[in-house]
């Protein structure tokens, strides 16, 4: 899959046009018009987000035994500018409804500079306008979601519609997607772990990390030295959903066998809380496997 800017904004008065063209899909890609099979269900009920407040690039201290060094420029992320790696964080507050119980939560949406003109948006949550304000005049090439919980997809349609950008989601998250967006809208690309795609100048690897849901993935961008881990791995802990674990053993396998095999200095950028590094979370891993 390949996305890059089209020559489509012919005048400043025109609305943003379609996202970039797609080439032949790679191995591990399922076209978006295929039906999901009975087993293609996310690992939990989805939620409807209700936004209460928004922030961009809020800093926080890492939990647990983490020493992820923050670049001094990261403190400026609250101004809405990308950091030195071309990565921008937008934090919005909302609600996750899981098994008919509402959980207040804060969710990170990540905006990654793909080239001089456009961006990749990962996990658009809750407040589409806050995300679009952060993107500004840049084109949205692709919206990529790490799983189908509403805290990762609730703003996906509105964010993608501005530039007619495609949406990517694992095929096993389609049932959860429909709980938020219905059958009228569906992701354009049904991805699977082990594939990759190119967005602008970036090569993005799709890492399979089932555990918090059946189709959870992480997005690894080697050029940025960063992995977007969704709710699979957070600073100092395996991520929870609604305060609990759905498949703790499977989640630990995804962390140990996939995420922690990346280079030690890789930034881990989760859906919630502060960022960390692979090196920092490797030191924590044994305690999660054999809690003491």
Automatic annotation (TrEMBL):
**Compositionally biased, Low complexity: which spans?**
65-78
What GO annotations for molecular function exist for this entry? hydrolase activity
* Family matches, as SMART domains: Lactamase_B (SM00849)
Which InterPro entries has this protein been placed in? MBL_Glyoxalase_II (IPR051453), Metallo-B-lactamas (IPR001279), RibonucZ/Hydroxyglut_hydro (IPR036866)
Query: What Gene3D superfamilies has UniProt attached to this entry?
Result: Ribonuclease Z/Hydroxyacylglutathione hydrolase-like
Q: Where is the signal peptide?
A: none
- Is the keyword Hydrolase assigned to this protein? yes
Q: Where is this region: Disordered?
A: 1-88
**Keyword Disulfide bond in annotation:** no
Where is there biased composition of kind Acidic residues? Answer: 33-48
The residue ranges of the Metallo-beta-lactamase domain are: 106-272
* This protein's UniProt keywords: Hydrolase
Query: What's the protein called, per UniProt?
Result: Glyoxylase-like metal-dependent hydrolase (Beta-lactamase superfamily II)
Record the organism: Haloactinospora alba
């Amino acid at each position: 899959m390949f996305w890059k800017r089209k020559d489509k904004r012919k005048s400043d008065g025109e609305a943003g046009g379609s996202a970039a063209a797609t080439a032949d899909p790679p191995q591990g890609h399922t076209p978006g018009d295929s039906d999901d099979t009975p087993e293609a269900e996310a690992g939990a009920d989805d939620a409807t987000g209700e936004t209460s407040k928004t922030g961009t690039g809020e800093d926080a201290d890492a939990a647990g035994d983490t020493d992820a060094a923050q670049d001094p420029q990261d403190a400026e992320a609250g101004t809405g500018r990308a950091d030195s790696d071309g990565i921008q964080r937008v934090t919005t507050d909302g609600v996750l409804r899981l098994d008919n119980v509402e959980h207040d939560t804060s969710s990170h949406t990540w905006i990654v500079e793909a080239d001089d003109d456009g961006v990749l948006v990962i996990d658009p949550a809750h407040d589409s306008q806050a995300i679009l304000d952060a993107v500004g005049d840049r084109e949205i090439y692709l919206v990529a979601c790490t799983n189908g919980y509403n805290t990762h997809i609730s703003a996906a349609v509105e964010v993608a519609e501005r530039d007619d950008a495609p949406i990517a989601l694992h095929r096993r998250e389609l049932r959860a997607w429909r709980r938020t967006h219905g059958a009228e809208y569906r992701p354009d690309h049904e991805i699977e772990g082990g594939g990759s795609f190119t967005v602008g100048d970036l090569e993005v690897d799709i890492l399979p990390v089932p555990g918090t849901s059946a189709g959870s993935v992480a997005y690894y961008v080697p050029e940025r030295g960063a992995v977007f881990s969704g709710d699979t791995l957070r600073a100092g802990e395996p991520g929870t959903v609604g305060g609990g674990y759905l498949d703790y053993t499977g989640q630990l396998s995804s962390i140990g066998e996939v995420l922690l095999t990346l280079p030690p200095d890789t930034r881990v950028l989760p859906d919630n809380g502060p960022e960390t590094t692979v090196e920092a979370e490797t030191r924590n891993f044994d305690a999660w496997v054999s809690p003491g």
